[in-house]
Amino acid sequence: MLPWKRALRPLAALLLTAAVATVPAATAAADTAPSSGWNDWSCKPSAEHPRPVVLVHGTLGNSVDNWLSLAPYLKDRGYCVYSLDYGQLTGVPLFYGLGPIDKSAEQLSAFVDKVLAATGAAKADLVGHSQGGVMPRYYLKFLGGAAKVNALVGLAPDNHGASLSGLTNLLPYFPGASDLIKATTPGLADQIPGSAFLAKLNGDGDTVPGVHYTVIATKYDEVATPWQNDYLSGSDVHNVLLQDLCPLDLSEHVAIGLFDRIAFHEVANALDPAHATDTTCASAFS
């Protein structure tokens, strides 16, 4: 190994460590139904909730750990709920979302097709956390997903890049660091502000016609920074700052997706706007 590559490893490790610190310790990903009842392939959508909901985990998450609270929350409200693993790297178990995002979008495409075939629904709704709110946009825009998806709800999605509280701004001071990260964890590299992936994704507009977009951000986000980078522009976009709903909510990048019931209430509103109710601090107990 060249000496300069050895010198770059600490920076790459620091970036990865910072990202790992934002997710809980993984337990086990599953392709079968977790005990709490989602990924039930016999579930048939009701007239009240006619579209299945596909949950898309974030970077270094997986189909179980990211959704231990939100999946049962939606299931209890009558939705057919599904989650997938994507972006796996060879030899890296449990921590996913690290592969090239365009390839991960292909995995999402196949999974949505599987969900629609099983449920008989014409369209699905997608709810994603962090990268899970960004990657589906590639599916919608470039892989024909807009014909199969009614709504995309993003929880702290780094739609215009994640600077990790400015950490990625150090990359230019380490020649070759960006190339090393792209080679080892392309899913992380794709989310760095200014990446070729983000340029393609956002180059001709943030949204596509026919899909309802909701973004739920938190001003305490330490990963998708600045938090305004989460927001989308478009004719059918609802951008929400969590603290405008409840000033007392201190959730940061992880908590907003893992256990914040105030954010979950706003997700439910986005999935069923015809029956939406005000999201307030009291929604934490609903």
UniProtKB/TrEMBL annotation:
Pfam families: Lipase_2 (PF01674). Keywords: Signal. Residues 1-28 form the signal peptide. This is Lipase. It comes from Streptomyces incarnatus. It comes from the Bacteria.
